[in-house]
Specification:
217 residues, mainly alpha, 6 helices
Length: 217
């Protein structure tokens, strides 16, 4: 009997330690998400591909906006899923699935941008930058995958907001912010010009989420 009690105590202690570690990693991932959105956005807006370090800067932006953002997104949602727990288990399972779909789409965007850029740089004799057909196809493809990524992310945010609101596991204002950001993100594929609004709301969510998860650990 004492052995069973000791085993139970160790198991509970290990579970608690694992939960604390997950919350901390979720906080770190949320901060990285905010940093990735800000830094990659600045590079895409102000970078010059013809500079000596232009290709390297754009490669960094692709990494931040793609793989790093994707991995951080899934990690953060996993931490939120554990925090909310059984109080909204099904909705958080769906939110995690939606975030994985969004993460895959963001990685696809980064891969398309990178492959296109290096093909252009590797074949200057083709003068692809002056081809309207190539530019239209590339722009349409990238915009379409970005729209899909934000759409899935929108559903993830709405599901997280609904789960947090009903379970009261997150501040009410943050839950409302999830709803607002999700509603905007859902329609980026229809209205590409609202993407900066989705990014701004996303940065706000990520920073608040980072502080909340880190402090709760």
């Amino acid at each position: 009997m004492p052995d069973n009690t000791n085993f139970k105590d160790r198991t509970e202690a290990e579970t608690l330690t694992s939960s604390v570690a997950m919350q901390k990693w979720g906080g770190v991932a949320s901060f990285l998400m905010a940093a990735a959105l800000i830094v990659s956005g600045l590079i895409y807006l102000t970078g010059n591909l013809r500079d000596a370090l232009g290709p390297l800067a754009y490669s960094l932006a692709d990494f931040l906006y793609g793989p790093l953002w994707a991995a951080s997104l899934v990690s953060a949602v996993s931490a939120l899923r554990e925090r909310i727990g059984q109080r909204a288990a099904r909705r958080m399972d769906l939110a995690l699935l939606a975030s994985i779909a969004a993460a895959c789409a963001f990685v696809a965007v980064a891969c398309i941008r990178s492959a296109n850029r290096y093909y252009h740089l590797g074949h200057p004799e083709l003068d692809l930058e002056m081809s309207s057909t190539v530019l239209i196809v590339w722009t349409t493809l990238v915009a379409g995958v970005i729209g899909a990524a934000w759409h899935f992310l929108g559903w993830a945010w709405i599901l997280i907001g609904a789960s947090a609101w009903t379970s009261r596991s997150l501040p009410r204002f943050l839950s409302g912010l999830y709803f607002a950001a999700g509603a905007v993100a859902l329609f980026v594929y229809l209205l590409p010009d609202i993407e900066p609004n989705a990014v701004a709301l996303g940065v706000m969510i990520c920073l608040w989420q980072a502080i909340l998860l880190w402090k709760s650990a």
